[in-house]
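Please, structure for the following, as tokens.
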Amino acid sequence: MQSNASMLNRRRFMVGTGAAVAGSAVTSSAGAKKGKRATKNNGRGSRNDRATVIAHRGFAGAYPENTVGAFELAAKGGSNDRAANRGADWIELDVYPTADGDIAIFHNRELGGETDTEGKIYDLPSEEVFSAEVLESGETIPSLEEALDAIPNSVGVNIEIKVAAEELDWAWGATDPKYYDRDDPHDYDHPEEELEQWQWLQTMVDIAAEYNNEILLSTFWEGAIWALENDIDHDFPVGFLMWYSIREGLDMADKYDLAALNPSTGMIQGTSMFDAEMYADETDVDLVAEAHDRDLPVNAYTVETWHEVEELIDAGVDGLFLDYPGIVRWGAL
């Protein structure tokens, strides 16, 4: 099992250790302010991994995304943020079913543009999907088994669940808010009606259960979460990918037995990334504080620079979806 701090329990560790450090600062004339600073410094000083490093599609900015080669390279390196080569604590990958019912690793439903093959993954036979070359890299689209074979047991795997039907195109949280009517929540009214469209998830969880990696399932789609909670036979924790609304994302945590919240960086208050225009009606909601009150870790996507890393860690984020492995190093040094 995983040797690094778990994405799902590291917040409890950090809070417990931080409390001890804050207690040692009680005699300071600065009082609470110095205590808060001491807690933050504890996260940077006594732990080498200040937040869970999650390789987004296998560090997509550094390697051909969602490929076996990317996963192998992402898993290599030290768990110390100061390491010249910082390896992933977790690897994030995306899954679709093929027309034959196999589980493929790819981000977009359309293969055109990023591979030498055209068409939607769920409409194509497995042979055609798994022979598609990714970004002229020499790497082809892997199956879920091939991906998990390439990832050491010590590295966690965040499996992001995509869709396998045209009628599920309008998922709350996955759409561009410019084209989304907030008064018409589409499939969110009756997620149980989508159950037939999510039966392929049973194949996915059955494959994942054959491996010893710690696994988190995550998705933008409530229909998938409903199916995982009410119909699909599995024991994996589930997280919600947030984009559309901070409040309604927190409502999802209250509605379902979620293990994590994975928001966009634009939802994290106290950072330069916070999108006050998009979330103008929710500036009074501190997502990190609310999630931590529910004892849920917050894992922010997608982090591109060392400065974003430092802001998010200071804001209390627990996990970082990174495109580049080395951007945690500056603050650690």
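The longest helix spans residues 10-24. Strands lie at 52-56, 90-97, 103-105, 156-161, 215-219, 238-242, 260-263, 299-303, 319-322.
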